[in-house]
Specification:
The complex is a heterodimer of chains A (560) and B (239). By secondary structure, chain A is of the alpha/beta class. Helices cover 43% and strands 13% of the residues of chain A. In chain A, the strands form three sheets. Chain A has a five-stranded mixed sheet with strand order 10-9-13-11-12. Chain A has a four-stranded mixed sheet with strand order 2-1-3-4, with helices on one face. Chain A has a four-stranded parallel sheet with strand order 7-6-5-8, sandwiched between helices. In chain A, a hairpin with a 3-residue loop joins strand 3 (78-81) and strand 4. The longest helix of chain A has 18 residues, at 466-483. In chain A, 57% of the residues are buried. Chain B is built from six helices and ten strands; from the N terminus they run ββαβββααββαββαβα. In chain B, a hairpin with a 6-residue loop joins strand 8 (171-174) and strand 9. A five-stranded mixed sheet of chain B has the order 2-1-5-3-4, covered by helices on one side. A three-stranded antiparallel sheet of chain B has the order 6-7-10. Helices cover 23% and strands 16% of the residues of chain B. Classes of the chains: A alpha/beta (560), B alpha+beta (239). Chain A binds chain B through residues 288, 305, 309-310, 458-467, 469-474, 477-478, 494, 497-498, 501, 504-507, and chain B through 48-52, 55, 63-64, 66, 69, 87-88, 91-92, 95-96, 98-99, 128-130, 132, 153-154, 172-173, 175-180.
C-alpha cells in the first residue's frame, strides 16, 4: 500500500489497519538497526534471522529492523515481542537457536534481563518509539500516532494556541542553553515579514554525545512533525535540517522520511488537504563543530564560510537570508508532538520547577551501561550513574562526571546527589549541554581531561575572533606544559587569566564556553594541577614526565 | 541619515552624548572625541566584530558589547575604559603578538603599524603568553606588492576591501582556528591570481606590515586608508 494524499480523517484508519496487521502476528522479532548495533553487524543478524524464519516455515511471524533500544554497550540487541525477551550481543550464528526457541523458552545464554534499573527507571517521551517502530516505514509511525498532532494543530488550533501550549508546557531548548521554547516561537511569530524559516539544528558535535543521531535514526518522522507544527505556529513555509555529514544513516533515514511524508501529503504543498504548505530541505554540514552555533549554521546554509556573527540581531529577527528564523535542536522538536497530544499540563508535571519534561543523555566513558537514556529532569546524577548506568566497571570509583562537552565542566563525585536540571548544573560550573555525559574514574587525570577538551575547542575554533583563535591555542599550550611537568605557578596564574579573558571577550558561545572545562577542574581539582606543577607528580598516574627530573634539577640550579 | 531617524541620548564615560539611532556606540564616541580602541574595523568597510578590542561595559548588560556593531539606545550608560577592559585589551594584544612573528625592529611597518601603536597606547609592554613562532610563508610573487603572512593578524580588512570596494574578491580566509590564513584566489601565488586587479587597496588598509609595497623604505611605507570614506561618498553609498 502506498500512502498518498492523506487527509486528517485518513490517519486513524491507516493507523488501525497497521495495528490490526501487527496484532495478527504471533511473534515479531525486533533487531536494532541504529548506528551502534549496526557497527556490530546487526544487519547480518537480521538477515540470518529472516532466512531462518523463512526456513522454519513458521507463519504469522516477522523480523523487523527498529531504532535504538538504548543499551548500546550490549549490542547487537534483539527483542522478541510480545514476550519482550531481550537478547544481547547476538551474532548471526545465534539466529537458528533464537528461531527454534520462539514460543518455547528464551535462549538463556543470550538473555539480557530487563528488570534492571536501566529499563525500569527511564521515562520515555522523545524515545517512546525508538526500538519499537521501523524508522523506514511511515505506516508504523502512523500506527504509533505519528502526524496526528500535526493534523490536530492544523484543524483544531490556531497558531497562537499552539504557541500558548508550548509556552505553558515549560519546554526549554535541548541544545544546551535552555532558552524557553515558547518564548522563542512567539518572538519569531511576532516578527514582521512574509518569509520565515524553521531550522532544525542536527549538527551534534560534542565528544561522546549521540542523542540527536539516535533520535533521527530511530524516529525521524517525530522530528519532521515537530518542525511542521512549529512552522504552522510561526507562519513559515520553508524548513531546513542542518545535519552533519558524519551521520550518513541518519541522513538516509531523514531523506526516506521526507520523501514518504511528501508523498502522503504530510509535508509539502497543502498538507493534509489544508492550505498550509511546508517544505523541508536537508543541508549537510562539512564537519565544523562551530556550525552548531546558530549564526554560523545560518551562514553555512547560505553557502558562506561557517562563522558566527555578533548578535543582535538574533535569528528570530534576522536569520536565514535576513528573514525571521526559528532554530531549535532535534530533541526540542521531538518533544512538540507529545506536548500537543498529551497537553502542556501533563508535560509540565514531569521534571522540576524550572526544568520541565525529560532529557535524553548519552552515557559514555567509564560506566558499565554505555548507551542512550531518557530520564525526567531533576533525576539525581547518582541515580543515573550508579543505578541506570550500573556504576563503574573494574571496581573503580567515580571521580567526576563531565556534562556539556567542551562547553561544560566536570562535576566531582561529592556532588553526585545534584539533580540534573539547567540551574543545578549551572551552579556547579557545568552546563546541561545537549546531553553528553562522560563518566570519569580515578585513573583519569583531570588536567588531561581539561587539555583534551581545550584541544577540541582549539581545533574547532573558526578563527574569526582573536580571544578564541589564539586564546584556546595558548591555553592548550599551558595545559600541555602542566601535563608534562614543565609548568610553573606563574603559568597557572596566566592560564587562569586567559580563561577569564577568553570567557568574557569571545564573539560566540564556543569561545565564551571554551574555558569551562579548565575553570571547573581548577575549581574542584586544583590540588591535581598543583601536584603536576610543584611535585611533578600525576596523582592519577596518567601523565608521563620524561623530562621532569631534568627540569627539576635545572630549576634547583637556577634557585641556587 | 533618513528623514524619520530619531536622535537618542546616552551617557559615555559619564558624558552626556547624543547620537542618531542608526549609529553605533563607537561612532557616537568618536564624534565626541572619546577613544575606543579598534583593530579590525575600518571606516568604509563592513563591521565584523572580530578583534574584540572595542568591547565596552554597558550598564544592565551582563556581557561586554562590541562598540563597533552595537547600536545606541536611549538612556544607555557606557563605560569605555575600566581596569577590567584595559586588562582584557592588553591580553588580547599579547595574544596577537604571540600568534604571529611580529618583530618590530626588522619590519617595514615599524613606526606606522597600527598593532604597534595600539600596544603603546594601551600600555602593553611585554608578552607573557608563550610565543607560537609559527612557520609562515612570504608571498613576493606579485610584481608590486608583498604579502608576509608572519605579520598578518587576520583582521580581514584586505578580504573585505577587495570584495566590497574593489569587487574582485581575490583574498579570502582558508583553514580554521590558529591555522587560518589569508589566501589569494584558490590558494595560489598572489602574482598568479587572475582575479587581482593590482589596485593596491588591500595594501593601504592593512594595519601591519603584512601587505606592503615593494621597493619602499620603512619611512616611505606609510599606509593611506583614508580613500575609503571618500570612495563611498563619491559612489553615493552611505558608509
Amino acid at each position: 500500500m502506498t500512502l498518498q494524499s492523506l487527509i486528517p480523517d485518513d490517519l486513524p484508519r491507516v493507523a488501525a489497519a497497521e495495528q490490526a496487521a501487527a496484532a495478527e502476528r504471533e511473534y515479531t522479532i525486533h533487531v536494532c538497526m541504529a548506528a551502534g548495533c549496526l557497527s556490530q553487524h546487526s544487519d547480518q543478524v537480521k538477515q540470518r534471522l529472516e532466512q531462518q524464519l523463512q526456513a522454519s516455515g513458521r507463519e504469522h511471524c516477522c523480523v523487523k529492523g527498529v531504532g535504538c533500544m538504548g543499551l548500546c554497550s550490549a549490542g547487537p540487541l534483539v527483542s522478541v515481542r510480545p514476550a519482550g525477551t531481550l537478547y544481547r550481543a547476538v551474532t548471526p550464528d545465534d539466529a537458528p537457536e533464537i528461531i527454534e526457541n520462539l514460543g518455547v523458552a528464551p535462549v538463556e545464554r543470550l538473555v539480557c534481563p530487563t528488570n534492571r534499573p536501566f529499563f525500569t527507571q527511564q521515562t520515555k517521551i522523545v524515545l517512546a518509539n525508538s526500538g519499537e517502530i521501523d524508522p523506514e516505514r511511515l505506516e508504523e509511525c502512523l500506527a504509533a500516532g505519528g502526524y496526528q498532532q500535526l493534523a490536530h494543530a492544523l484543524t483544531q488550533l490556531t497558531p497562537v494556541q499552539v504557541i500558548e501550549q508550548v509556552t505553558r508546557s515549560g519546554l526549554r531548548g535541548r541544545g544546551g542553553a535552555g532558552y524557553p521554547t515558547g518564548l522563542k516561537w512567539s518572538t519569531v511569530a511576532k516578527a514582521g515579514g512574509n518569509q520565515k524559516y524553521v531550522i532544525c539544528n542536527a549538527d551534534e558535535g560534542d565528544p561522546g554525545a549521540f542523542m540527536d543521531r539516535s533520535v533521527l535514526e530511530s524516529d525521524p518522522h517525530r522530528v519532521l512533525e515537530g518542525m511542521a507544527i512549529a512552522a504552522y505556529a510561526i507562519g513559515a513555509n520553508e524548513g531546513y535540517i542542518y545535519i552533519r555529514a558524519e551521520y550518513p544513516l541518519a541522513i538516509k533515514r531523514l531523506q526516506t522520511a521526507i520523501r514518504q511524508a511528501e508523498r502522503a501529503q504530510l509535508l509539502g504543498r497543502s498538507i493534509l488537504g489544508t492550505s498550509f504548505h511546508f517544505h523541508i530541505h536537508l543541508r549537510l554540514g562539512a564537519g565544523a563543530y562551530v556550525c552548531g552555533e546558530e549564526t554560523a549554521l545560518i551562514a553555512s546554509i547560505e553557502g558562506k564560510r561557517g562563522q558566527p556573527r555578533p548578535r543582535p540581531p538574533y535569528p528570530a529577527e534576522s536569520g536565514l537570508w535576513r528573514s525571521p528564523t526559528l532554530i531549535n535542536n532535534v530533541e526540542t522538536f521531538a518533544n512538540i508532538a507529545p506536548i500537543i497530544g498529551c497537553g502542556p499540563e501533563w508535560f509540565a508535571s514531569i521534571g522540576t520547577e524550572r526544568s520541565k519534561g525529560t532529557k535524553v543523555f548519552a552515557l559514555a566513558g567509564k560506566i558499565a551501561n554505555t548507551g542512550l537514556i531518557e530520564v525526567p529532569m531533576g533525576t539525581p546524577l547518582r541515580q543515573i550513574i550508579n543505578e541506570i548506568g550500573e556504576g563503574i566497571p573494574g571496581g573503580q570509583r567515580c571521580k567526576a562526571v563531565q556534562t556539556g562537552g567542551p562547553s561544560g565542566g566536570c562535576i566531582p563525585a561529592e556532588y553526585l546527589d545534584t539533580p540534573v536540571d539547567y540551574e543545578s548544573l549551572g551552579a556547579l560550573g557545568s552546563i546541561m549541554g545537549s546531553g553528553g555525559m562522560i563518566v570519569i574514574d580515578e585513573r583519569s587525570c583531570m588536567v588531561d581531561v581539561a587539555r583534551f577538551f581545550m584541544e577540541f575547542s582549539m581545533s574547532e575554533s573558526c578563527g574569526k575572533c582573536v580571544p578564541c583563535r589564539v586564546g584556546t591555542a595558548e591555553m592548550h599550550e599551558l595545559l600541555a606544559r602542566i601535563g608534562q611537568g614543565r609548568a610553573t605557578l606563574a603559568d597557572l596564574e596566566l592560564l587562569q587569566e586567559l580563561c577569564e579573558t577568553v570567557k568574557y571577550t569571545s564573539l560566540c558561545g564556543l569561545g565564551q564556553a571554551a574555558p569551562n572545562p579548565v575553570l571547573s577542574t581548577l575549581r574542584y581539582f586544583k590540588d591535581e594541577y598543583l601536584a603536576h606543577i610543584t611535585n611533578h607528580v600525576c596523582p592519577a598516574g596518567q601523565c608521563q614526565f620524561e623530562e621532569a627530573e631534568l627540569l627539576a634539577i635545572e630549576e634547583q640550579g637556577v634557585q641556587l | 541619515m533618513t528623514v524619520s531617524e530619531r536622535v537618542k541620548t546616552l551617557v559615555i564615560d559619564g558624558r552626556d552624548v547624543s547620537a542618531r539611532e542608526s549609529q553605533t556606540i563607537l561612532e557616537a564616541a568618536q564624534e565626541e572625541g572619546i577613544f575606543i580602541p579598534t583593530m579590525c574595523r575600518l571606516e568604509g568597510l563592513s563591521e565584523v566584530g572580530a578583534c574584540r578590542l572595542c568591547l565596552v561595559e554597558v550598564k544592565g548588560s551582563n556581557k561586554l558589547l562590541p562598540a563597533c556593531v552595537t547600536r545606541v539606545e536611549e538612556g544607555m550608560e557606557v563605560q569605555t575604559r575600566t581596569a577590567r577592559l584595559d586588562r582584557y585589551r592588553r591580553t588580547l594584544l599579547e595574544l596577537l603578538f604571540a600568534e604571529g612573528n611580529h618583530i618590530c625592529a626588522v619590519c617595514v611597518a615599524n613606526g606606522h603599524c597600527e598593532l604597534q601603536t595600539m600596544a603603546q597606547k594601551l600600555g602593553m609592554d611585554h608578552v607573557r603568553v608563550p610565543y607560537r613562532a609559527p612557520r609562515r610563508t612570504v608571498d613576493a610573487s606579485h610584481a608590486r606588492f608583498t604579502f608576509d603572512a608572519n605579520r598578518c593578524i587576520l583582521c580581514t580588512r584586505c578580504v573585505r576591501v577587495c570584495d566590497e570596494i574593489e569587487g574582485a574578491h581575490t583574498w579570502d580566509i582558508m583553514g580554521r582556528g590558529v591555522e587560518s590564513r589569508v589566501i589569494a584566489d584558490l590558494n595560489e601565488p598572489w602574482g598568479e591570481a587572475t582575479s587581482c586587479t593590482s589596485c593596491g587597496k588591500c595594501v593601504q588598509v592593512c594595519p601591519t606590515g603584512a601587505l606592503v609595497e615593494k621597493g619602499k623604505a620603512v619611512a616611505e611605507s606609510v599606509k593611506r586608508p583614508n580613500f575609503l570614506p571618500y570612495l563611498k561618498r563619491t559612489r553615493g553609498q552611505h558608509s
